[in-house]
Structure prediction request, 150 residues.
Amino acid sequence: MPEESTPKEQAKAPAPSEATTEAPKKAKVEKVKAPALEELPFEEFITTHYVPALSQALTKKGISDLELKYLPSSDRQPQVQGKWRGNQRQFTVYFAKPDINGQKAFSCADLGANPSTIEPFLVDERKATLDLLVFGVMQRLNAQKWLQAN
Prediction:
């Protein structure tokens, strides 16, 4: 004897025509997510987001004559370079390759001298974000006592 469904079960089961019309509706509703800032092409991320965010953070700390620029890779590593106090203070963030998650280095110099040390930068971080890259520079410059007095 075949099992009969109860009236409750029959009411829950959608009619075959309802099931086929719901699937296309769901597909149309799905939105395509915009890529995260960090997933943008390297140069676009650096010029459109990183340099302005870093500039804003340094300006908030009272640096008024900041010259901040992106130096794209040609025969050397891509770099973001900042100078202020009449070019007396400078720092550079180096990218080993055009990839924010790749190896990075940092250098700084005071009194117009050339940097004497290039040190690893944010090496323990697996995934770099805009906020982390800005924070790393701010933290490093603060360690130099360049952003506020002791």
